[in-house]
Amino acid sequence: MGSWHCKIDIHRTFVLQPTRPHTVFGVGALAGIDDILDKLRQGGCDAVLVVTDPLAYKASGAWDTVRPALDRHMPWEHYDGVRSNPTYANCDAAATTGRAMAAKAVLAIGGGSAIDTAKTAAVLLAHPGKKAVDFYEKHAPITAALPIIAINTTHGTGSECNAYAVAQTDGADKPVIHSPHLYPTWVIEDPALTVTLPARQAVATAIDALSHALEAATAATASPYTICLAKEAVCLITAWLPTALRQPGNLAARYWLMYASAIAGIGFDLGMLHIAHALEHVMSTLNADVAHGDGLGLLLPAVLAEIYPAAPEVLAEVLRPIAPELKGLPGEADRAVAGLRQWFACIGQPSGMSAYFTGADVPALTRMVMKSCLSKTLLPLAPIRVDTAVVERIFQQAL
């Protein structure tokens, strides 16, 4: 078996240790919110904008601890209008709430949607007069952001670990912004906050982390670090997700799933993403009912079929917990896909896009992918050349 080590370009430099948030990780980590708010207050912060969706911040149990802590330390206002696949309007509305009370920091409670909205609001509050569209579509430079505190309530987003944020206009595009200013200042990763995730969301968020790992390990920007992070993340996800589904309150399972998500998020912060995320962003732009992780799960088998022959050594090692018989040979793509599909069936991940799209939608989906500004960034990072025919074939196979 050939080793992926032999294919690493040792003359291409990469960032091994980037700027990162100060992350408190483990069961009980939420108790650290008092220390964080105290440090903020000592640094001159006298008002906090809280950003959440309408449900998760309470359902997770986080609010029972965070609200009393806020009341003890400083004034705060709450924007709870974040929706799944947040829009520019969500970001602008959150910033308007923060501007009205002269917020000096932004605190997010939730998954990727809440954290991305909070990141964007933190940027908007540091750039008076700007709207979300100025950064997402007009490429206004991000020169500052308010301090961001991210309290993660899922095991899939990765947003708490990286310098990216996503928002969209329904039916048009779902761009990404990137800046070192988008790294949260503090992150709380408390696995106890994930025990109330419904099974469908537990699966979707875990698949989001799985996709982060697979893409970061096979992108043109991959490194030994991102590959090793991906191997560990996939190993942990496959080992612990079934336990979390059978025993939702199992804190060990939630701990390792949240850890897997975090290291996969670090991996894609360094190694980037490619085909699956480029295509899923278009799916959820056209149909906001498509949860991000669910959309990725619908696409991944078809994406794997395309990329496996180009990166068999890496994918055989990363996918070993799912398909242990893989030897790292280009002709094994069908075997790899079959193993992934079988594992998806075991965890209850749907196998086709028919709940959201039909074959008649494929031409529009394909056109949007090829026009998307995100695709123009991500698709060149894929381990294969991605053209219209490849994108259309993936969508057709995913049906």
UniProtKB/TrEMBL annotation:
UniProt superkingdom: Bacteria
UniProt entry tagged with the keyword NAD: yes
Cofactor(s) required for function per UniProt: Fe cation
Domain Fe-containing alcohol dehydrogenase-like C-terminal residue range list: 203-397
Domain Alcohol dehydrogenase iron-type/glycerol dehydrogenase GldA: 22-191
Molecular function via GO: alcohol dehydrogenase (NAD+) activity; metal ion binding
The entry's keywords: NAD, Oxidoreductase
Similarity comment: Belongs to the iron-containing alcohol dehydrogenase family.
PANTHER family on file: ALCOHOL DEHYDROGENASE, ALCOHOL DEHYDROGENASE 4
Protein name: Iron-containing alcohol dehydrogenase
